[in-house]
């Protein structure tokens, strides 16, 4: 304990608090110190202990005094401890609670637990030895002594100064991020205009480009974005906005639906549309309201709700009989299928595959076996 010096408990310049733990009692070797329970603070430079009741009672010791340390497990009626072995006290050490001690080690007794994390943090600091990086240019005192009048960024003032510096840095980063975002939006509009120009050239020179190349390039254009997305700013709000949005969705979704067998889950449609719209994102509510207007506008699409509540967008030309026949044929060929297996065969989502199987079951073509292994469908031989 004679390695500790009296301290005001304030952090020095370049010193950072690492961890603090309440309910810690100090031992001078194997003997309890004449100090009550307190708070143990570990910084990058020092081990600090402060009395809970008397805040003026605060002592500190440089981490450079530590030789090694070890954990001492808790026992019956005994708290877990960290035993810290120390170098001899230096000759010029400032005054502390103990002038002399017969022990070369101290113990930290943790009455309220927390010793595992404290030991881990102490191990990190002793490995990194961050106090050595500032010792040469700016020594860190352990007490108040003759150097107490030196200018320091400590206490509330120092904390407020650090908070203000971090706030300014955060504001700067946010400003730069939004500048980059604005530039990205400008470039995105340029790319959309370019894609529309190239699409028009493809139409003019249709004979010079194969059908496969046209389809592939159109899919690239779709992933780039919609040239002029319908927004509330351009088309107002309410019914008129949803009508115009429905017309645009009708033009946009027809090709993707044909590629996916004539049906897509509304969640897939939502992701596809918002990816194409870029920065002009669409809300789920607006998408649903627009899809409900497909049939009234006599568009080639319609919104369908299955008995389970799953919503899909499908082509008007999509034949329900063909969908049921496909499910029956695949189940008959394989003997039985789960929704996951059926999804792999058709390249559809598991959700839509299950709805197809349930529809075929509803029409009496399939029957189910619902067991601990999952839901499996069989041809209905009854």
Automatic annotation (TrEMBL):
Keywords: Coiled coil, Cytoplasm, Endosome, Protein transport, Transport
Any one GO molecular function term: phosphatidylinositol-3-phosphate binding
The UniProt record lists the keyword Chloroplast: no
Protein function: Component of the ESCRT-II complex (endosomal sorting complex required for transport II), which is required for multivesicular body (MVB) formation and sorting of endosomal cargo proteins into MVBs.
The protein's name in its UniProt record: Vacuolar protein-sorting-associated protein 36
Any single GO BP term: protein transport to vacuole involved in ubiquitin-dependent protein catabolic process via the multivesicular body sorting pathway
Quaternary state and interactors: Component of the endosomal sorting complex required for transport II (ESCRT-II).
Organism: Labrus bergylta
Chief site of localization: cytoplasm
Domain GLUE N-terminal residue range list: 1-138
Region (Disordered): 130-149
Subcellular location: Cytoplasm; Endosome
